[in-house]
Amino acid sequence: MRALAIGFLLLAAEPSLGAETYVGSDADAQRTILGFKVPDAAIRKVLPQGWEPDVATGGPDRDINLHLTFIDRLTAQNAEGKTLDPLRLITVTIPAKKTGSETRGSIAFRIYSASASGVPGVYGVAVQAGTTTERKVRIDPAGTATVEESWDIRSTDGDIIQLQTQYVRGVLTPGKEEGRFYSLIRPDFYRIYRSEVLTDVVRGPATDRIQRIIFKASGPKLAPLFEGSEQLIGLTSVPWYTRRTYLGGS
Question: Of the four listed, 7, 100, 127, 163, which is most buried by Cβ atoms within 10 Å?
Answer without folding.
Answer: 163
